[in-house]
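Entry 14. Two folds queued back to back today. First construct below, sequence then C-alpha cells.
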Amino acid sequence: MQLSTRRRDRLIGLFVAGAVLLNPPVLDLFSGGWVFGIPSLYAYFFTVWALLIVGLALVLEGSRARPDDRDDGAP
C-alpha cells in the first residue's frame, strides 16, 4: 500500500473517530459530575480534542521520519 493511501485512510479514520466521539449522544454520557474540579463534559471534550490533534500530528509528521517510503519514485 502506498504511503499516501495509508495516510489518507488514517486521516479518514481520525475524522470518523472525532465525529463519533464528539457527537451529542456520546457527549451526553459525560454531562454530569466533576473531574479534578472541572465539569466532566469539559474534561472529556478537551481530552478528545487534544488526542485528535496528537493523532493528526502523528499521521502527518510520521511519514517524514522514513524517507525510504516515498511514493514519488525519487531515489
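Second construct, same run, same settings:
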Amino acid sequence: MTEFIDVNVNDKWPMKFPRHIGELPMWKFWEKERMAAMYHAIRPDDVILDIGTCNGDMSAVFASWVKPAQIILVEPSPDFWPLIKAIFDENGLKPLDCYQVVVGDKTDPSFDYYIHGDIERELWPKDSENEIKLETGFMHLNEHPDSIPAVRIDEMYLPKIDIITMDIEGSEYEALAGAEEVLLKDRPIVFVSIHPEFMWREHHHSPDDLIHMMQKFGYDATYLAFDHEQHWIFKPKP
C-alpha cells in the first residue's frame, strides 16, 4: 500500500504525493519559472496535451489548474503508469485520455489503435494496474521500437489543444515536427523543456534548430530559465 503525504508545490499548490516522491527537497523550488509561466498562461477551460508525463506528479499539478478531465497524458514507459494513476486517483483528478506511446515525426502504421477514435479502449493503459515501482527510468524515442509505438501528434485522435507541455529527454524537435497541423490549426501555447545534450546525442539537433522550426510555424520563442534543462515558451504570433 503506497503512503501519500501532503506536499505544497513551490509553496503554492497543495497536492498529495507518495512519500518517496513527496519527501524530496525539490518541491520548494521545482522549475519555478516554468511553472509560474504555465500557471499564468493556462485558463480553466483549456485542454492540455502533456507529453512526457513521467511519474505524474507535475501533470497532476497542471490538471488541478483546469476543469476536470481536461488533460491528455502521454507517456511511453510502462513502469510510470501505476504511479501516474495512483497520484491522479489520490488527488481526485481524472485525465481526458491516456496514450502509452512515444511521440515523434513518424507513425508506426501498425499501431492504428492509438490514432483512430472509433476504436473502443479503456481510459488507463493496462500497465497502470501493475504494482508501483519506486525506481523507474525514462524512455527515448529510438528505444524499444518493437514494443512501444511511435506516433505523430498530428495522427493522434485529439480534441482542440490549447496548451502543449513537453519534457521528453531530447526528442523535442521530432515531436513538434510531427505536430505541424496541430500547431497551425489549434495555435496552442507550447512549453518545452529542452535537453541539449540528449537532443544532440540522440538526434543531432540543437535548440536553435527547434527555435527556427517553431518560427516557421509562426511562433515566437521566449527563454524562461535553466536549471537541469532549458525551459522555453513558444507563443503563436497574432
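Quick look at the second one. The first helix runs from residue 19 to 22. Helices lie at 19-22, 32-41, 57-64, 81-90, 172-177, 180-186, 196-203, 207-216.
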